[in-house]
């Protein structure tokens, strides 16, 4: 009888121990996916932050113009662009080839593929510094080859997506195109007036005021 009681006690203790272990294991596996999920979210956030940081550091493109009140005149005088460092998503060599082909072309059609690729690239992940300058470069080429509607289109992206530093220039250049290349004096007047209304402290105020006096 005593032996049977001992066995019963030991079996009961064993079952209790197993039950406790099973509960602990279940609790652990419930917590693990949650922890893994939290880790994945943290890693994704960190990767995004690293990507955005790299995006601003890996590629710079700059127009050969100064930040002065006559930059519209400078822009119309030349339209060279400078590449520095490696771009994200496109090799620097390929980018250089694109710009070279565009510069050497005498029609929009001759380099439309390169232009469309550049426009898609810079607008997909719009960067406040280099995207507007590349679009301004492309608009300048379009002016050169009498593709004014395309120039207006690219400048509109600059106006809609950029900060005032580039937005004011994009808008003023639209006015200049309407005035000097498309013979649309009234549209030019309206556009220059928008420069004064929306960007009263911009570098383009001087140009817009002079334009309104001569139209």
Structure description:
- With 215 residues, the chain is mainly α.
- It has helices at 2-58, 71-77, 92-104, 112-124, 130-144, 148-161, 164-180, 185-198, 205-214, and strands at 60-63, 81-84.
- The chain has a two-stranded antiparallel ribbon.
- α3 packs across α4 (112-124), α5 (130-144) packs parallel to α7 and α7 runs antiparallel to α8.
Q: Looking at the structure, what is the overall shape? A: globular
Helicity range: over 70%
**SSE arrangement, N to C:** HEHEHHHHHHH
Q: Got a strand count?
A: 2
SSE-based structural type: mainly alpha
Which segments are poorly predicted (pLDDT under 50) over 5 or more consecutive residues? 13-17, 20-25, 27-39, 44-57
Give the biggest sheet.
2 strands, antiparallel
Radius of gyration: 31 Å
Compute the average pLDDT: 79
**Order of strands in the sheet with most strands:** 1-2
Question: What's the multimeric state?
Answer: single chain
Strand content: under 5%
Through-space gap between termini = 118 Å
Query: What is the overall number of helices?
Result: 9
Which key features would you list for this structure?
215 residues, mainly alpha, two-stranded antiparallel sheet
SSE map:
Elements: H1 2-58, E1 60-63, H2 71-77, E2 81-84, H3 92-104, H4 112-124, H5 130-144, H6 148-161, H7 164-180, H8 185-198, H9 205-214
Antiparallel strand pairs: 1-2
Helix pairs in contact: 3-4, 4-5, 5-6, 5-7, 6-7, 7-8, 8-9
Summarize the structure.
The longest helix is centred in the N-terminal third of the chain and has 57 residues, at 2-58. Helix 4 (112-124) packs antiparallel against helix 5 and helix 5 (130-144) packs antiparallel against helix 6 (148-161). The chain has helices at residues 2-58, 71-77, 92-104, 112-124, 130-144, 148-161, 164-180, 185-198, 205-214; strands spanning 60-63, 81-84.
């Amino acid at each position: 009888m005593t032996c049977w009681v001992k066995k019963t006690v030991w079996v009961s203790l064993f079952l209790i121990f197993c039950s406790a272990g099973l509960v602990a294991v279940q609790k652990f596996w419930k917590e693990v996916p949650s922890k893994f999920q939290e880790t994945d979210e943290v890693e994704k956030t960190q990767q995004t932050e690293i990507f955005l940081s790299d995006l601003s550091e890996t590629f710079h493109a700059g127009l050969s113009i100064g930040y002065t009140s006559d930059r519209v005149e400078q822009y119309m005088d030349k339209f060279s662009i400078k590449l520095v460092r490696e771009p994200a998503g496109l090799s620097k060599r390929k980018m250089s080839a694109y710009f070279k082909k565009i510069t050497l072309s005498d029609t929009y059609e001759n380099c439309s593929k390169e232009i469309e690729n550049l426009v898609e690239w810079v607008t997909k992940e719009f960067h406040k510094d280099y995207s507007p300058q590349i679009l301004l470069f492309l608009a300048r080429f379009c002016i050169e080859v009498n593709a004014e509607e395309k120039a207006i289109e690219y400048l509109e992206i600059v106006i809609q997506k950029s900060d005032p530093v580039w937005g004011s220039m994009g808008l003023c250049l639209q006015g200049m195109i309407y005035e000097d290349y498309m013979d649309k004096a009234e549209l030019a007047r309206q556009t220059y007036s928008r420069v004064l209304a929306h960007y009263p402290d911009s570098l383009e105020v001087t140009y817009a005021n002079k334009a309104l006096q001569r139209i």
